[in-house]
Design a protein that fits this description.
Blueprint: E1 25-31, H1 39-55, E2 60-62, H2 76-79, H3 86-98, E3 101-108, E4 116-122, E5 128-132, E6 152-155, E7 158-164, H4 171-179, E8 184-188, H5 196-210, E9 214-217, E10 233-235, E11 241-244, E12 251-258, E13 261-268
Parallel strand pairs: 1-2, 2-3, 7-8, 8-9
Antiparallel strand pairs: 1-12, 3-4, 4-5, 6-7, 9-10, 10-11, 12-13
């Protein structure tokens, strides 16, 4: 993908704004239960989260890795979506209606080979683009192909670098984000209870090393044979976990960022199911 451009900004994402400071921004991390391969059902839960997050003042709503389908590697080829899929039109309409940027996880059709693990980014001006996961987890190469370009979006002057799961385990990925002068590092992932401590440590290190808030949107239900642990949240520039969901409760984690300072709170989505109907 080319570096995305925010419709409210007058500068491309790869140019540093030096004369004005970014406006305060709120990024909502949506952790929700997903159903195996049930795109329509999952989409409806996305729309519920988007509407509520916008009502709470979110400028961006970010979902976990492959949030629209679940982490179903064996089904990735048949679930892969074309770039003009109707699902993206619905999400883009929600971005427009709620005046918020929407970032959701999806398998993306690749005309040159295996599908990509992607994030679709929908803007309030009606446009959408994609970030393709660059660093695959062991075993994913059997089912999908990596992307090769970084993802950086500009939302109201805040430059957000995008990562999908194993991306953040490769120091070159966050180093490129820092070189592009990102203000925030935002990761969508699937993390298990056994892997959380190690991954949280890496995310904290990225935040402290590059002096930028680091955010994580994680799954809460079993998907693709993996049990997940939720705990979506954000680390400040000291590497401290500043805001975090309570385990696997379906929640919106509201991350407020102003002049690089991270604060926030959690909205528990009590009307969403805590576990989707999954048959792995």
């Amino acid at each position: 993908m080319a570096l995305a451009r925010d419709p409210s900004s007058t500068q491309p994402a790869k140019q540093k704004m030096t004369t004005t400071k970014p406006a305060p921004i709120t990024i909502a991390l949506a952790q929700l239960a997903v159903s195996k391969a049930a795109v329509d059902d999952n989409l409806q839960m996305h729309l519920t989260c988007i509407e509520r997050a916008a009502a709470l003042g979110a400028n961006v709503v970010a979902f976990p890795e492959l949030s629209l389908t679940g982490y179903e590697l064996a089904l990735l080829s048949q679930l892969a979506m074309p770039r003009d899929d109707a699902t993206f039109a619905v999400l883009t309409a929600a971005a427009v209606a709620n005046n918020t940027v929407v970032i959701a996880g999806c398998p993306l059709h690749n005309p040159n080979g295996k599908p990509h693990i992607a994030a679709v980014i929908c803007f309030p001006n009606g446009e959408h683009t994609f970030y393709l996961k660059q660093h695959l987890h062991e075993g994913e190469e059997v089912y999908c192909a990596p992307g090769h370009e970084s993802g950086l979006i500009n939302v109201n002057g805040t430059r957000i670098a995008l990562a999908v799961c194993a991306d953040f385990t490769h120091p070159s990925h966050d180093a490129i984000a820092a070189a592009q002068q990102a203000d925030v590092y935002l990761a969508s992932a699937l993390i298990s209870p056994g892997g959380y401590a190690k991954d949280a440590g890496m995310l904290a290190t990225i935040a402290k090393h590059h002096q930028l808030p680091v955010l994580l949107a994680n799954h809460v239900s079993s998907t693709g044979g993996w049990q997940t642990c939720g705990n979506s949240g954000g680390w400040n520039t000291a590497g401290e976990l500043t805001v975090k969901a309570n385990g696997t409760q379906p929640s919106l984690v509201l991350c407020h960022i102003h002049h690089g300072v991270l604060s926030g709170g959690v909205e528990v989505m009590t009307h969403l199911p805590s576990k989707a109907s999954i048959t792995d």
